[in-house]
Design a protein that fits this description.
The protein is α+β, with helices and mostly antiparallel strands. Helices cover 51% and strands 11% of the residues. It contains 19 helices and 11 strands. Strands 3-4-5-2-1-8-9 form a 7-stranded mixed sheet. It has a two-stranded antiparallel ribbon with strand order 6-7. The longest helix is centred in the last third of the chain and has 23 residues, at 287-309. The radius of gyration is 27 Å and the shape is elongated. The chain starts with a helix and ends with a helix. The mean pLDDT is 95. Bound molecules: adenosine-5'-triphosphate (ATP) and magnesium ion.
């Protein structure tokens, strides 16, 4: 059973119980563009309690928003009840959510026409807003008046830029105009929601979208990211991995600003090291640097130093140097802590073992010592 078949099973069940149900959102858009792979979201006329009553395996994900997650085989589907939203005082959460029975009413709350399509069980497309035409024209248009829709939820502006990169579409003139007027509202949006969109965005070629962010003045309000993105446009270089993107933003602001973001600590740690190495302008990556920081990070530092600071690009050299390292991890050493304990049976195990291993590791990396138990034992006896 694939994802689509699993969704169809759920749709059949809802239909049999007398409810309308449609595939909505990105899946339908991508399907019309001949692409596959996005998650399938479902929308239905059934109330959340009814959906819960019909399916055995459900998870209450967002009952407040009318969403129930249904598990079918190894797949999970979010099923959202048709609803309307009204008056967003805080520009990001609707004050009132009301369930409705018609999909035509539900589409009014959706962001863009290309995202407001529905697909029935038999593959028929339902389009109340001209979304098919806009997909054919490669145009991003809001459902309803752009200014009002961005006023309700300012994240939609960033989503417009994200879809521009992801799909290679253009923003409609009204969308551009509204972004010029309402761009400052992005400051009301939580950093978590912004990170989600930016991460999706830079998985694609985001240069044009970033350029347009500058032209519309939107970039000015993007806080931590503004200066980094400005530099990327200036240098015509946008990385397509998020860590590299964040490193550029850090270089253009500060480590402290990075530390304030809700990002996993191990990623922050890599960014700290990388931005330091870029600042120093490291050109040659010796075996110690390669061993300590790993291949991925060294390649990234070299790319950044090349694209931002004009230093030579040495990706292949770094790659081959890394491959010829005698050891890539501490545990690749053939001589282990146990061997040391055997050598010094009268000594109590402690931090000194780690010190010896560090030294051995260094000697092996420098090519002074072969990674063989016999050689290393001799070396340790002589030097420690
Ligand atoms: P993809 O899955 O490729 O990221 P998507 O269109 O499915 O794209 P999601 O973020 O998964 O995007 O959202 C699913 C659907 O929910 C959208 O297609 C859109 O109809 C609606 N939607 C999501 N976020 C908003 C929003 N901020 N305002 C209005 N509608 C939204
Ligand atoms: Mg989606």
């Amino acid at each position: 059973m694939n994802q689509l078949q699993a969704a169809q099973n759920i749709m059949k069940e809802l239909n049999e119980q007398g409810h309308e149900v449609l595939i909505v959102g990105g899946y339908v858009r991508d399907h019309l563009m001949g692409k596959v792979g996005s998650d399938i979201d479902l929308a239905t006329s059934a109330k959340p309690e009814e959906v819960q009553g019909i399916f055995k395996r459900t998870i209450l994900t967002g009952l407040k928003h009318g969403t129930v997650t249904v598990v079918e085989g190894k797949y999970q589907f979010e099923i959202t009840t048709y609803r309307t939203e009204s008056s967003y005082q805080d520009k990001r959460h609707p004050d009132e959510v009301k369930y409705v029975l018609q999909f035509e009413e539900d589409v009014r709350r959706r962001d863009f026409t290309m995202n407001a399509l529905g697909m029935t069980l038999d593959g028929h497309i339902i389009d109340h807003v001209g979304g098919i035409q806009d997909i054919n024209d490669c145009m991003i248009r809001t459902v309803g008046q752009a200014e009002q829709r961005f006023n309700e939820d300012a994240l939609r502006m960033l989503r417009a830029f994200r879809f521009m990169s992801q799909l290679g579409f253009q923003l409609d003139d009204d969308v551009i105009q509204a972004i010029k007027e309402e761009g400052n509202l992005i400051q009301h949006i939580s950093i978590e929601r912004i990170l989600v969109e930016l991460e999706k965005m830079i998985a694609y070629d985001a240069l044009k979208a970033f350029q347009l962010m500058i032209e519309t003045g939107f970039l000015h309000y993007l806080g931590f990211f503004s200066k980094g993105i400005e530099l990327m446009v200036k240098k015509s270089y946008v990385p397509n991995n998020f860590k590299e993107f964040l490193t550029i933003c850090t270089l253009e602001t500060s480590i402290e600003s990075l530390d304030g973001l809700p990002i996993a600590n191990y990623i922050k740690k890599d960014i700290h090291i990388a931005s330091e190495m870029v600042s120093i302008g490291i050109v040659d990556f010796n075996s110690i640097l390669l061993f300590r920081n790993g291949l991925e990070l060294c390649l990234m530092v070299n790319r950044l130093n090349h694209h931002l600071n004009g230093l030579p690009l040495k990706q292949e050299k770094i790659q081959s140097d890394y491959e010829s390292l005698p050891i890539k991890k501490l545990c690749d050493l053939k001589f282990k802590g146990d061997h040391i304990i055997d050598l010094y049976q009268d000594k109590k195990p402690g931090a000194w073992i780690g010190d010896i291993l560090d030294d051995v590791c260094l000697q092996v990396l420098l090519g002074e010592l072969e990674n063989e138990i016999v050689n290393i034992r001799q070396y340790v006896l002589k030097n420690h």
